[in-house]
Amino acid sequence: MSKAGPIVGGIAAIVISALVFLVPFAFIILTAFKDRAQAAALDFTWPASFNLWTNLVEVVTTRNWMLVTAFINSTILTVSSVTLLVVFAAMVGFILARRKSRWNPLVEFLILAGLMIPPAVVPTIWLMQGLGLFGKLHGLVLIEVAYNLPFSIILYRAFIATIPRELDEAAIIDGARPLDVFFRVILPLLWPVTVTNIVVQSVGIFNDFTNPLYYLPGNQNATVQLTLYNFQSQFNTSYNLLFTNILLITIPPLIVFLFFNRQIVAGMTAGAVKG
């Protein structure tokens, strides 16, 4: 019985995970295949006719190919934000792990505060308007970097703490400058946690709904999540097109997680034990 307990628990966990994640995804796929009348019932039934291609064409071409523009905007937003996050978070994590000073507790407190305190939307909008960044894609890039930087710093700091200081000292003895030590010695060793950070932040920023809604108005600035408004309104919703749109914008993050699942787990646990 003692040996059977973990097996039963594992099977139960798999079944519950399948119900939580696979059933909703199956419902999205089935609804995307239906026509408008059958999809309006919002039931878990087999499609009477397969209309996926028709739905895909209508979703992509709606409002002058808005979904294509949204994918381009989301890609630019994601790549730019994640690039800045990796560079800035790695540099801050390196300094916090290597240089102990009286300011470290204050910096660490601010980092934790950035994780715990919810963002203030109205003051942020007022600040962005004053800087001329409201409604600009590069303004939202700065917002995403600011909101996600604390988590990235914590990841990098924990990982850098496992790297021996002797590597830094050897590089300095060989004549390396501080920037050379970081970019040529430390940064290449951060690949496991960097992959984790890239995947986690990319999926989060790509799927972000609230920040583009608040800080990036205008159809020309639409991101993929905001295109869901194309097919729903107060009095009428085309559920077949809505779920087809959801299916399209779900596929890229799903592929990323499937291919990088092992790297995500390795990077998250790499700094758990200091060597």
In short:
This protein has 275 residues and is an all-alpha fold. 74% of the residues lie in helices and 0% in strands.
Could you list some keywords that capture this structure?
mainly alpha, 275 residues, MetI-like fold, single chain
- Beta content: under 5%
Terminus-to-terminus distance: 38 Å
CATH superfamily: MetI-like
The topology string of helices and strands comes to: HHHHHHHHHHH
CATH class value: Mainly Alpha
Low-pLDDT regions: none
* Number of DSSP E strands: 0
Tally the structural domains: 1
- Main sheet: strands, sense, barrel: none
CATH T-level fold name:
MetI-like fold
Structural category is: mainly alpha
> Which CATH architecture?
Orthogonal Bundle
Shape: globular
* Rg, Cα atoms, Å: 23 Å
Organism: Devosia oryzisoli
Keywords: Cell inner membrane, Cell membrane, Membrane, Transmembrane, Transmembrane helix, Transport
Subunit structure: The complex is composed of two ATP-binding proteins (UgpC), two transmembrane proteins (UgpA and UgpE) and a solute-binding protein (UgpB).
Protein name: sn-glycerol-3-phosphate transport system permease protein UgpE
Q: What features would you describe in this structure?
A:
It is a multi-pass membrane protein. Pfam families: BPD_transp_1 (PF00528). This is sn-glycerol-3-phosphate transport system permease protein UgpE. Its main location: membrane. The complex is composed of two ATP-binding proteins (UgpC), two transmembrane proteins (UgpA and UgpE) and a solute-binding protein (UgpB). With 275 residues, the protein is mainly α. It has a single domain (65-270), classed as MetI-like (MetI-like fold). Helix content is 74%, strand content 0%. It contains eleven helices and no strands. It has helices spanning 4-33, 36-39, 52-98, 104-116, 121-131, 137-160, 165-173, 178-189, 191-206, 210-215, 239-270. The longest helix is centred in the first third of the chain and has 47 residues, at 52-98. It is globular and about 75 Å long. The two termini are 38 Å apart. The mean pLDDT is 86.
